Amino acid sequence: MMAPPAQSAATPAPGPSLRDIHLPPEPSWWPPAPGWWVLAGLLLLAGLAASWLWRKHRRAQHQRRQVLLELDRLVIQHQRDGDQSALASGLHQLLRRVARKHDALAAQQRGEAWRQTLARMPVDAATLDRLLALDQQIYRPSSSFDHAAAVIAARQWLRLALNPAAWKRTAPEHAHA
Q1: Residue 149 has what pLDDT?
Q2: How far apart are the C-alpha atoms of 58 and 29, rounded to whole Å?
Q3: What pLDDT does 141 receive?
Q4: Angle between helices 147-161 and 84-100 (to 10 degrees)
Q5: Quick check: 162 and 71 in contact, CB under 8 A?
Q6: pLDDT grade, residue 173 (50/70/90)?
Q7: Higher model confidence: residue 51 or residue 162?
Q8: 166, 159 in Cβ contact below 8 A?
Q9: pLDDT digits over 63-72, tens only?
Q10: What is the largest CA-CA distance in the chain?
Q11: Left, alpha or beta for 165 (phi > 0: left; psi -120 to 50: alpha)?
Q12: Has UniProt tagged this entry with the keyword Transmembrane helix (predicted)?
């Protein structure tokens, strides 16, 4: 019997010819996946919101400084000329301007309505009375009043009033009265 012929190393094996395994190409970095687009959008929105809040905060700080500098100018002017009615008038106008930013009717209020507007700041009754006395002091002929206490009361009220979060909300029935 004859033995099967031995295959030589040079002859190919029967069947398909297999090649080495090829890996797919590396994924491209562009365009990014949708999740990265969403993240970029959220970061952009967060940056815009932070910028807006920062500018709002800076504007409020600048306004606070300007109002307190105006208060200091009134005090310096009073120290120079001693005009108590001008000091009382200046303090009263400054209080009204700041109050008007939170209550549009503050410029026209008198008596109890003005007291309620001033009372929206958490100040004690003595401070409130000193601030209300300014309204009367404007129209009195150069009578003496405790200008130092009035300036301290105005400064205390203004520091609180220049913080919008400190304003107490009014009841709806008082808002239209």
Answers
A1: 92
A2: 40
A3: 72
A4: 10
A5: no
A6: very low
A7: 51
A8: no
A9: 999 999 999 9
A10: 146
A11: alpha
A12: yes
pTM for this structure? Answer: 0.70
Of 151, 157, 96, give the one whose Cα is nearest residue 125.
157
Exposure of 130 in the CB half-sphere (CA atoms within 13 A): 18
Q: Output the six-digit token pair for 25.
A: 């190409």
What is the DSSP secondary structure assignment for residue 104, as one 8-state letter? Answer: G
Half-sphere exposure of 134 (CA within 13 A, CB side): 28
The single-letter code of the amino acid at 145 is: F
Handedness of CA 6, 8, 9, 14 (dihedral sign): negative
What is the DSSP-derived secondary structure letter of residue 164? G
Q: Which residue has the tokens 């809040």?
A: 53
Q: Alpha carbon of 25 to those of 22, 35, 36: distances in Å?
A: 9, 22, 21
Higher pLDDT residue, 48 or 105? 48
Residue at 44: amino acid letter: L
**Sign, Cα dihedral of 35, 36, 37, 39:** positive
